């Protein structure tokens, strides 16, 4: 499956805005995503666990409590994963938008299976109606042993690590503009309906510690330079963004 079809890019002008961004974690995630491994695992486990329909806007914790976590198999839908910050703000850390087919809950499951005290409050929120199945980590490990699909699980985890490393390089240690640029690129490849419903300022604030005034200043400069067009705080158009500001 090509990167173009995965991110629903509809015309050449949109794709041209992403040229030269091959190492962006968001494009890298889609280009190298191990679809065969994910689909094989989902097919092998399609009769396991509890079948649930998660309605758009509904949120599910990946841990029911401190001792019981969930592995979520996502067969259909678009969702985002986020985690409660471990600070006084108690605001969310957003890990990004994801789509089916997918599997989430490995981190919580690891903490559960090995009795670790450290556990983040990870959550899944449906952006569209999502068809999912819920397994315990113990059930997942048992079924993966039965079907001998640890190689597929390894591919999925290796891909996640690659994307996290790319995102770390993209966001850490850079100036405010480069962080904002990276997040605008991420938002631009979201499905159009979700992108046009997303407030750009809130999107950036929820993912960085950059001040509101600095974000507004940079967005204003990008609008003045005709690099982006916004309407009611939503990103409508974007040209190729400058590498530096």
Would you kindly provide a written description of the structure presented here, covering whatever features stand out?
The structure is a single chain. Helix content is 42%, strand content 21%. It has 245 residues and is of the alpha+beta class. It folds into two domains: 3-20 and 175-238, Arc Repressor Mutant, subunit A (Orthogonal Bundle), CATH 1.10.10; 35-168, Sandwich (Jelly Rolls). The protein has a four-stranded antiparallel sheet with strand order 1-8-3-6. A four-stranded antiparallel sheet has the order 2-7-4-5, with no helix packed on it. A two-stranded antiparallel sheet has the order 9-10. Helix 3 (25-31) packs antiparallel against helix 7 and helix 4 packs across helix 7. It is elongated. The two termini are 35 Å apart.
Sequence-ordered SSE layout with sheet pairings:
Layout: H1 3-6, H2 12-16, H3 25-31, H4 35-44, E1 50-54, E2 59-61, E3 71-76, E4 78-84, E5 92-99, E6 102-104, H5 106-113, E7 122-126, E8 130-135, H6 137-147, H7 150-171, H8 176-188, H9 192-195, H10 200-205, H11 212-224, E9 228-231, E10 234-238
Antiparallel strand pairs: 1-8, 2-7, 3-6, 3-8, 4-5, 4-7, 9-10
Helix pairs in contact: 3-7, 4-7
